[in-house]
Design goal:
47% of the residues lie in helices and 14% in strands. 28% of the residues are buried. It is α/β, with parallel strands linked by helices.
Length: 545
């Protein structure tokens, strides 16, 4: 359209203003060249001068904006000239009959486009708000050292998640295999040996560890290995039958994670020592979303943007649901290839330190990656990129979103590794699991907090641990009873109060609160740019003439 308009303008000048044709051609030649130089200077100024496609897009954007500004102001100057009126080459009303056809289809198309634009705008606004508030939170230092803590009890151990979700585990009486030591009121017994398990995954072990063992290790990843947390003491209370040690921790990264060395011993052969069948397994536990860290919510949005967009598109265009996985992988991967060519790739993930650490582990060692919630999703991604086993507890799916990670990360493993080297535990009523599809071995279990599912009552790790002990049992015979309580209302009120104090303190420390004059000048400058781009607004007519 711009090329056609340029050709028409040159023809008009050639016919009516022959002597001005040279100046017009010179203008059309010099202006794009000047804009190309400006685009190149801008790209070099930000260190992106070597990106040819990016330079082309910036230059085309400059040309389009300059063309619109010149066209708008030239038309305005033509209209305000006395004795001249604006005429159109085509009658704008001659296609009114055509606009009446397919009215319902046109209306449906407009509604679909507006809905998509609204969703995209809302997503961008939420993501920008998360990054803004995360920056303010980082600047103010408003962080809780731990969201999960524990304390020993006379009858066992208690693990608390922000005080709202509390798990109590009662040890089995040393003098009786069936007795309880001080069984708390409201606790439910752990399934005993000989009882029929409820789920197909019950009784299975991966590298000598049950699913409940990986869930307990995932709970430890939410705690910092400081002296006051006494994580070795908690490991001794949760794994008295195994030697579990903490080998490595996160190095001031954006994601908490712990590396455990687990000495797993199986049945020894007859006539041999008891440690002949022992293996050393490395378990890397990744923490999930910290509800007190806003950056974690932004990471959730970034990691599952594409599958959520596809689900939204499938409501408007149902045929999207018929796409095979290779098609969606091609679309998602192609988007990120284009972004990389424009030097706009979004490849800084919270799992980067974990991925580099796992790749440095010798290949002959047995490695398992586990985690809960966002940590479970990260475990599935890292396991697929490295080829190691991933055990995810209540994760969002990664069936489609894996494509972008395989496109961005250099890996020799296929994205289908998620089918052969992953185990996922999902809970019915947990809406977090619906962000994407699931692959590999997936076990679905029922929820004990269905009446609180809206307030993530079915997404609690403490509830999953208690449910597994009740319906799958404890092969190591460590615990006799478990109790899980969830009271989100009181905790939510305290969190809201703390958030209000944080926002008040952030505003007082913000740039706008202390630099009103600079903010006003910036607003005036942006307004001048908008007037130059879109034209000055019409002056209001007086009510009384």
């Amino acid at each position: 359209w711009a090329v056609t308009f340029t050709a028409v303008a040159l023809t008009r000048y050639a016919m009516n203003r022959g002597r001005a044709l040279g100046r017009t051609v010179l203008l059309f030649a010099v202006l794009p060249a000047a804009l190309l130089a400006a685009a190149a200077g801008l790209c070099w100024a930000v260190g992106r001068g070597g990106r040819g496609l990016l330079l082309l897009c910036v230059w085309l954007h400059f040309c389009a904006q300059a063309f619109r500004v010149v066209r708008r102001w030239s038309r305005w100057s033509y209209v305000v000239t006395p004795g001249k009126t604006l005429r159109f080459a085509l009658d704008p009303k001659q296609d009114m009959d055509l606009q009446q056809t397919y009215a319902a289809e046109r209306k449906l198309g407009r509604v679909a486009i507006r809905v998509l634009l609204l969703v995209c705008g809302s997503f961008c606004a939420v993501l920008a708000a998360c990054f803004l508030m995360a920056g303010l939170q980082q600047r103010a230092g408003f962080f809780l050292p731990d969201v999960v803590w524990w304390r020993p009890l006379a009858e066992g151990v208690e693990i608390s998640n922000l005080g709202a979700s509390v798990l109590r585990l009662s040890r089995l009486n040393a003098t009786s295999a069936s007795g309880l030591t001080g069984k708390p009121e409201g606790a439910v017994p752990v399934m005993r040996k000989g009882e029929a398990p409820r789920y197909a995954v019950c009784g299975h072990a991966w590298h000598g560890l049950q699913l409940v063992d990986y869930a307990m290790m995932s709970s430890l990843s939410y705690m910092d290995p400081r002296e006051e947390n006494d994580l070795p003491g908690l490991l001794g209370a949760l794994f008295p039958h195994k030697r579990v040690t903490i080998r490595s921790t996160s190095n001031n990264s954006e994601r908490r994670w712990l590396e455990f060395d687990v000495d797993t011993c199986g049945p020894a052969a007859t006539g041999s020592s008891g440690r002949d069948n022992c293996n050393l397994v490395t378990v890397i536990a990744v923490s999930g979303t910290d509800p007190t860290r806003i950056m974690d919510y932004a990471e959730d949005l970034r990691m599952w943007t594409e599958p959520c967009t596809l689900q939204i598109l499938s409501f408007v265009f149902p045929t999207v649901r018929l796409w095979p996985r290779d098609t969606t992988a091609m679309v998602i991967g192609g988007i990120h290839v284009i972004l990389k060519s424009l030097d706009m790739q979004d490849d800084r993930w919270h799992y980067q330190e974990i991925l580099e650490h796992v790749r440095q582990i010798p290949e002959d060692r047995e490695v398992v990656i586990t985690g809960h919630s966002l940590g479970g999703g990260i475990a599935l991604v890292v396991g697929s990129l490295t080829g190691h086993l991933a055990v995810a507890i209540q994760p969002p799916g990664v069936y489609h979103s894996l494509a972008k990670h395989h496109t961005q990360q250099a890996t020799m493993h296929s994205s289908h590794a998620v089918h052969t080297r992953s185990v996922s535990l999902v809970v019915e009523g947990d809406w977090v699991q619906n962000f994407d599809g699931h692959g590999g071995l997936v076990q679905t279990m029922s929820c004990d907090q269905t009446q609180k599912s809206v307030v993530i009552g079915c997404h609690l790790l403490e509830g999953a641990i208690c449910h597994l002990l009740r319906h799958c049992g404890d092969q190591a015979q460590r615990f006799a009873a478990c109790q899980h309580d969830y009271k989100p209302i009181s905790t939510a009120l305290s969190v809201v109060g703390s958030a209000m104090e944080f926002f008040r303190g952030s505003w007082q420390m913000s740039y706008l609160a202390s630099h009103w004059d600079s903010a006003a000048m910036a607003s005036l400058f942006v307004s001048a740019i908008a007037v130059a781009r879109y034209g000055a607004p019409a002056l209001p007519r007086p009510i009384f003439q």
